[in-house]
Amino acid sequence: MKHVVMFSGGAASSYVAYLLTKDKSIPFKDIVFLHTPTLSECEDSEKFRLKVARRLKIPMTVWGRGEDIWECIDRNGAVPGQFLPFCTQQLKQEMKEQYFRYLKKCGEDWTEYVGYGPDEWMRVQKATARNEALGRNVRFPLAEKGIKSEQCKSIIRDEWKIELPSAYATLKHNNCIPCFKGGKGYWYEVWKNYPEQYRKAAEKESEIGYTVFKDITLFELEKKFQNDKEWEEMQMNLWDFIPCECWT
Ligand code: SF4
């Protein structure tokens, strides 16, 4: 039986892996630290992942398309969004399924571990129902133990002495930048902190003819960001963010 931690490269999934290493009922050799890369995160994400893997003494298992978010957009001829999340499906979910098929071929059974926290009970419920329907085991150690993402971050930073990916300074998740499933408040942060990526996404909308939001293009949204002095205040609580499958 393999115990597969979906390792996004974020603090929560790192801490889930740590909890597994401390669980005496789980043979160390059976812990799999699975990363399905999107090659589109902040530049220090890989450093973080490697440092965490070394600290836990578990080699990372990497399985991916070898494609970044922009290449995924070009191949699909569409721009992803909350209602068209093909990037998650193709870069994350399909890769995970391929890895599970590989385990099956090797005659291995598995349990999947995901870093959803106690404040993400809706995602936990949905994922539990989906996996039950497939006859699969999935566990959420942080939600089960009531450990919040902020606690994971402070342990990693202050006790493990591993610097967190720089994206956490301004964004909630260490996701692709930009993450096309983010809401307008999230895109405001991208516009402010990662203007190059914002512009590239806006140009993709113009080039391809799809928009992230149904009611506004990213170029129009940028004008709002520039003109509306109240925007920042208004958006503080409007992240309306639907995270990618294993981005925690
Ligand atoms: S993090 Fe966002 S942009 Fe990247 S694959 Fe997931 S949903 Fe898509």
Report the end-to-end length measured between terminal Cα atoms.
Answer: 24 Å
The CATH homologous superfamily of the largest domain is termed HUPs
Q: How large a portion of the residues is in β-strands, by DSSP E?
A: 5-15%
Total domain count: 2
Low-confidence stretches: none
Rg measurement, Å? 18 Å
Give me the CATH architecture of the largest domain, please: 3-Layer(aba) Sandwich
Bound molecules: iron/sulfur cluster
Work out the oligomeric state of the chains in this entry.
single chain
Largest sheet: 5 strands, parallel
Keywords:
5-stranded parallel β-sheet; 48% helix; binds iron/sulfur cluster; single chain; 248 residues; alpha/beta
What features would you describe in this structure?
- There is one protein chain.
- The protein is α/β, with parallel strands linked by helices and 248 residues long.
- The protein folds into two domains: 164 residues, Rossmann fold (3-Layer(aba) Sandwich); 67 residues, no CATH class.
- Helices cover 48% and strands 8% of the residues.
- It is built from eleven helices and five strands, in the order E-H-E-H-E-H-H-E-H-E-H-H-H-H-H-H.
- A five-stranded parallel β-sheet has the order 3-2-1-4-5, sandwiched between helices.
- Helix 1 runs parallel beside helix 2, helix 1 crosses helix 7 and helix 8 crosses helix 9.
- The longest helix is centred in the middle third of the chain and has 20 residues.
- The radius of gyration is 18 Å and the shape is globular.
- The protein starts with a strand and ends in a 13-residue tail after the last helix.
- The model has no long low-confidence stretch (mean pLDDT 91).
- The protein binds iron/sulfur cluster.
